[in-house]
Amino acid sequence: MTQEIEIEFKTVLEKTAFDTLLNALPFSANAIEQTNYYFETNDFALKKQGSAIRIRKKYDEYVITLKQPHEQGILETHERINSDTFMNWIDGKPVATGQLKDQLTALQVRLEDLIYHGYLTTFRRTFTENELEYVLDESHYNGIVDYELELEAVSFTDGEKAFDALLGQYHIQKKAPITKIERFFKSLPSFMTNDNDER
Hints:
The chain starts with a strand and ends with a helix. It is an alpha+beta fold. It has 7 helices and 8 strands; from the N terminus they run βαβαβββααβββααα. It is globular, with a radius of gyration of 17 Å. An 8-stranded antiparallel beta barrel has the order 1-5-4-3-2-6-7-8, surrounded by 5 helices. The chain has one domain: Hypothetical Protein Pfu-838710-001 (Beta Barrel). The longest helix has 14 residues. A hairpin with a 2-residue loop joins β3 and β4.
């Protein structure tokens, strides 16, 4: 069980901008495949609190991550699980322990209310420079393909400066960040219905 504060900057890219960055910068030649499996309650209790939960499969390993808003970025609570526990989550029998369970309790979200909604697969390329990690993602979900640039930093100031400089250098429009889980759920009819009901 681990917790960390994630400081990241991101923007969705057009395919042409994605290709430009891929060819111009020293991203890894081979993409790493990872799949996020997303969960929510019927009434979107996590979304209403600016939070989200997923299980990520990478290299045949599974990690549950709860993301919550934090004044310095995003608070992430991680719990490694085995394939049997992963299948329990998919089958509607989620289990969690320690800090993850405590965080969900604090959000007044019951484990048994979390429902599996689907998955998003990302092909990720990265490189690191000056303590900054640059990430180029191609994601596939519900018949959609999209592209994204992320920059992860230790310092908000350094990260923002480097991110803005990179976008300026390659004449890329800075768009309001939309997380993968937000893009995934917005592709679901059930999410759109719920979103309209809230209005």
